[in-house]
Amino acid sequence: MDKTVLKFGGSNLRLRSDLSTILQVVRMYNEPLVIVVSALNGVTNLLINAVKNIGTLDVDGFLSHLYSMYCEFLGEEFAPLKERVYQIRNMLIGTQLIGEVPDFVHDYVVSHGERCSSLLLKQYLNKMGLNFEEALPEQFGLVTDGKFNGASVDLTTSEKNLKEYFKKDRNYVVPGFYGMYENKVTILGRGGSDYSATCIAYCIDAKRVDLYKDVSGFMTSDPKIVTGVKSVEKLNYDEAAELSYFGAKILHHAAVDPVRKKKIPLYVYNINSFTSIENPDTIISSDAFVTESIVKSISFTDDVAIIQFKGSNVGRVPGILGFIASTLGNEGVNIKSVVTAQTSINVLISSHDVERSQRITSRMKIAEVEDICYKTGISLIAAVGDGILKRHGVAARIFSAVSKQCVNVEMISAGASDVTTYFIVNSEDREKALKAIHGEFFGGDVFERH
Ligand code: ASP
Ligand code: MG
Q1: Is the pLDDT of residue 283 over 50?
Q2: Which ligand 1 atom is nearest residue 195's CA?
Q3: Which residues have C-beta atoms less than 6 Å from ligand 1?
């Protein structure tokens, strides 16, 4: 029988009473389940800080604090969980002695919150009379590309492993957030349990993936900034992928890709307003459709910087972009996007990669490039919706709404994807721009409220 993959995030694991909420949800399903679980709320940050401050960490004090958190959560002591929590003790002490944290230790420790959650949840569900077993990525073989602190899953190898492992009609609880590369744990980037869930769904040909959150699915924009936002009921894979790629925090940026490949539907629920499986907040599927407003959501990211390669001919001479891209790529800098013109090539990168890129580009010798400059302190705003490029006048509405607020647009790109128009503004104008576009397409207050 086809399985359903469920995922509960850290925001669903704040209080002890959250366990009974999860139980109520789990009881609604009739088919076999794979439940992917994140670390308890805040635990990943605790672990990250522990490795960061390893020199001064009171290892036993830290572990006993963690274990008491789990006991409180579960409402009782549980010896296997104590053993699990203390599994990182030797690693922490060893690391403290050598005074340096190797990448594989970092990823192992940081992923430990998930390994503790899966055991805790399995124990709880069993106690409540449900039959679940725990399965770890190291057991079932979720294999990655080996990139520490931001790995991608090798779907081909993992699919073979998982098909075999999960072939029985049983229920499983699985820790999210990491996979294995040559017997080493590699984490999948912050928020990576969503991505674990969709990769597992891909590998076992799941019927569907249901992600539980504490927010009402995808929104028309970020509710922390824009007032009057609404849930977006339906998105196609491209729209959801673009929104998460361009900053919507609801979903890990790579999570859509595996389910898109197999057309597995993805449902997002707010656990706090959950009524039934039939009522998700957002449904993500292959159905392409155009809404009246065309734009379905507006997201943004501040994690962006531009490298500008200037020269009177750079846009015309073949091979320059290829050289730039491969040189940056070989040194591990990911290029988010590229916009070229006759006299400049603009490469969008993560703001975390600026220093590294500066070192690389200072060594680059390209005859046609007269100047290389960096733009930081900028934000990327993406308006996403099927039809955005085809429907006459939509881009004009976006940019006239923004310009009415006297916001200067630094750079525009449309056409890189069928469903997105994005542009760059100075970060201090980002809020104004978001409100202006949201007001234009969804109504509500457009102006800054002080
Ligand atoms: N616990 C990890 C994080 O906080 C992974 C996740 O929540 O999906 O990033
Ligand atoms: Mg999380």
Answers
A1: yes
A2: 8
A3: 9-10, 38-39, 44, 113, 176-177, 190-193
